[in-house]
Specification:
It is a single chain. A hairpin with a 5-residue loop joins strand 3 and strand 4 (121-127). This protein is α+β, with helices and mostly antiparallel strands and 227 residues long. The strands form 3 sheets. It has a 5-stranded antiparallel sheet, with helices on one face. A 4-stranded antiparallel sheet has the order 7-6-8-9, with helices on one face. It has a two-stranded antiparallel sheet with strand order 10-11. The chain has 2 helices and 11 strands. It has helices at 5-12, 16-69; strands at residues 87-88, 93-97, 109-115, 121-127, 144-149, 152-162, 169-172, 184-191, 202-204, 215-216, 223-224.
Length: 227
């Protein structure tokens, strides 16, 4: 039996229409693959950028946590009452703590957390033995600045501890002339509009406390008999 000529042509390969359809389908598949690769690349770049942004916040919080946790409740020897040398309000906190690794070994250092007008969350540092400046006065004279985080819109510090008037404990907006350092320090930061970084509330508990039963002898600077 003889095979029809048309059937022979179909057995030998694709028709022109079938080939065009196949090429069109292959082009669509290739476009989808390229679009998927481009999307994956963009997602990876955004993820890497977000990771780097988050790292800047983590690094800033790590520095502040480490300094505040190691706060030393140094008592002011010039006061007749045992007053811890740790002073703060909602816009700044000044205290003494162990030196940074680059300054070790050394005596205690003074630290002050502030926000500059340029929007830089800054840690001011100064050697506590440097008596050329009054580090309890406002301003940055004599301090060495360390910029922790840029592009900050505002920040706020609060202190948790015993109330000066009445009984009980609460979050307070200042800490001044107290016989103890705050039990907790909370730092809130708001970044400028468009900045996608997130600053979770940083709450730090200083490890050391002061002996409130101790009364400081103003002549010797040492702990004397309690009254």
């Amino acid at each position: 039996m003889t095979t029809p000529p048309a059937a022979c042509r179909r057995d030998r390969g694709f028709t022109l229409v079938e080939m065009l359809v196949s090429l069109t389908l292959l082009g669509m598949v290739a476009a989808m693959l390229l679009n998927g690769l481009r999307t994956t690349s963009l997602f990876g770049q955004r993820s890497a950028g977000q990771f780097e942004a988050d790292e800047s916040v983590i690094a800033a919080q790590r520095v502040l946590r480490d300094r505040i946790e190691q706060l030393r409740p140094v008592v002011d020897p010039d006061s007749a009452v045992a007053i811890v040398d740790a002073v703060g309000d909602q816009s700044a906190f000044t205290f003494q703590s162990v030196p940074l690794a680059r300054n070790e070994p050394d005596s205690l250092w003074r630290y002050r957390i502030i926000l500059t007008p340029a929007g830089d969350l800054t840690l001011l540092t100064a050697n506590s033995l440097d008596d050329r400046h009054d580090f309890m006065m406002p301003g940055s004279k004599g301090w060495q600045p360390i910029i922790l985080l840029k592009n900050v819109q505002s920040f706020q510090i609060n202190y948790f501890g015993a109330r000066q008037t009445g009984s009980g404990t609460s979050w307070q907006i200042n800490w001044f002339q107290r016989p103890q350092p705050p039990a907790l320090v909370r730092i809130r930061v708001a970044l400028r509009s468009g900045d996608r970084r997130v600053w979770p509330d940083l709450i730090v508990r200083p490890r050391a406390t002061d002996n409130t039963a101790c009364r400081i002898d103003v002549l010797t600077g040492r702990c004397g008999a309690s009254s």
